[in-house]
């Protein structure tokens, strides 16, 4: 075993969900987004500690079935919502059979729903109707949304009007107000003929930045897992705890001379005689190859921790670090991200976001829950 491990902090997951719920009105419900294998944390690992959520959101049918099976094993009864809806008429029939909630964002999905009688008492009777308020990704425009809502209401479906912020991480972006206004106008028009219509606009960033727009449902994603959803505030500043710690071990050490080079491409050269360590993780495990000026945290033989820089290029199965001056041996622990360095810091040094690093982790690291 390479001793490369993803440790899931169950208390952090529960803490983050509790923190999110503390910011909401008592009538606002939380959908916990567990798509992409719970953002790389593992659905089976995350769900037991997110069971206080009011529903679970997934991207596709296979994820929905996996979540339902896990919920059944835990004896938890919660709705599961397909946030991209179904991709075929057969999937619509399966969604009805399984009682999954569905987003409808385009005409074909609308036709499938209207061709069937809603099943009374099933969560499939509730349609999450997607309004394109300016992100221009999924959803009906300002006029189409009214037509779709009227048809679904007349067919006996319950409605939750939903949309998605494009720039909620940047509170000053003018597109946010445009989206809020368009959403509010559509909701007002729909409630004229379907007064029981509910609403859901906020993702994780919206939860923190737009308290007046929480409506009936929020959809919490990255914040549940301890990553920051905001452009200019850290996760710790928001009170979020990282739910994932990625660790490995030193598998070799070397003393090199001044002028010698390290790794593929020889892009790093020693300016003096020094000691380096080799760590049992690489991009084959999901650690980004393209990091610049990133650090890891190493434990020395006296149980002290030290932040040290990665040197040279990250390879598929290993990376190299500067361990000069440390009393440290093969087998000692290395933290790639967790409390420090934080995953958001590594993401910034890789030119990406924490979401991607979580989701791109492969199955090679062992996953454990503490």
How would you explain this protein's 3D organization?
Helices cover 29% and strands 23% of the residues. The protein is α/β, with parallel strands linked by helices. The chain has an 8-stranded parallel beta sheet. Strands 10-13-16-15-14-17 form a 6-stranded antiparallel barrel. It is elongated and about 80 Å long. The two termini are 20 Å apart. The relative contact order is 0.14.
Please specify the SSE layout and strand pairing.
Blueprint: E1 5-8, H1 10-22, E2 29-33, H2 35-39, H3 43-46, E3 55-58, H4 61-73, E4 80-82, H5 89-98, E5 101-104, H6 107-114, E6 126-130, H7 142-155, E7 158-162, H8 174-193, E8 198-200, H9 204-209, E9 217-220, E10 244-256, E11 261-262, E12 268-269, E13 274-279, E14 295-299, E15 305-311, E16 319-322, E17 333-337, H10 343-349, H11 354-360, E18 366-369
Parallel strand pairs: 1-18, 2-3, 2-9, 3-4, 4-5, 5-6, 6-7, 7-8
Antiparallel strand pairs: 1-10, 10-13, 10-17, 11-12, 13-16, 14-15, 14-17, 15-16
Helix pairs in contact: 6-7, 7-8, 10-11
């Amino acid at each position: 075993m390479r001793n490369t491990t993803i440790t899931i902090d169950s208390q952090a997951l529960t803490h983050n969900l509790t923190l999110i719920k503390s910011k909401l009105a008592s009538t606002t419900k939380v959908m916990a987004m567990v798509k992409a294998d719970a953002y790389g944390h593992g659905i089976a690992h995350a769900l037991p500690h997110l069971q206080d959520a009011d529903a679970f959101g997934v991207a596709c049918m296979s994820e929905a079935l996996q979540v339902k099976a896990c919920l059944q094993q835990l004896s938890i009864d919660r709705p599961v919502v397909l946030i991209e809806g179904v991709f075929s008429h057969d999937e619509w029939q399966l969604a009805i059979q399984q009682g999954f909630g569905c987003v409808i964002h385009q005409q074909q999905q609308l036709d499938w729903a209207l061709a069937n009688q809603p099943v009374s008492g099933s969560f499939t009777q509730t349609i999450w109707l997607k309004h394109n308020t300016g992100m221009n990704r999924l959803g009906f425009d300002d006029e189409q949304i009214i037509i779709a809502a009227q048809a679904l209401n007349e067919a006996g479906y319950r409605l939750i009007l939903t949309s998605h912020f494009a720039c909620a991480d940047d509170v000053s972006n003018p597109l946010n107000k445009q989206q809020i206004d368009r959403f509010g106008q559509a909701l007002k028009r729909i409630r004229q003929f379907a007064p029981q219509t509910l609403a859901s606009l906020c993702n994780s960033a919206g939860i923190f930045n737009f308290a007046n727009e929480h409506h009936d449902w929020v959809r919490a994603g990255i914040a549940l897992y301890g990553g920051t959803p905001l452009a200019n505030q850290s996760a710790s500043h928001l009170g979020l705890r990282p739910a994932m710690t990625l660790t490995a071990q030193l598998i070799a050490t070397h003393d090199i001379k001044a002028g010698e080079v390290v790794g593929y491409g020889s892009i790093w050269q020693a300016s003096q005689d020094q000691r380096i360590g080799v760590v049992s993780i690489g991009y084959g495990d999901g650690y980004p190859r393209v990091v610049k000026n990133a650090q890891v945290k190493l434990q020395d033989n006296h149980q002290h921790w030290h932040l040290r820089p990665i040197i040279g290029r990250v390879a598929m199965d290993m990376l190299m670090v500067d361990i000069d001056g440390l009393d440290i041996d093969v087998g000692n622990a290395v933290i790639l991200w967790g409390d420090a360095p934080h995953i958001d810091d590594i993401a910034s040094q890789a030119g990406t976001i924490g979401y991607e690093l979580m989701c791109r982790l492969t199955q090679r690291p062992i996953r454990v829950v503490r």
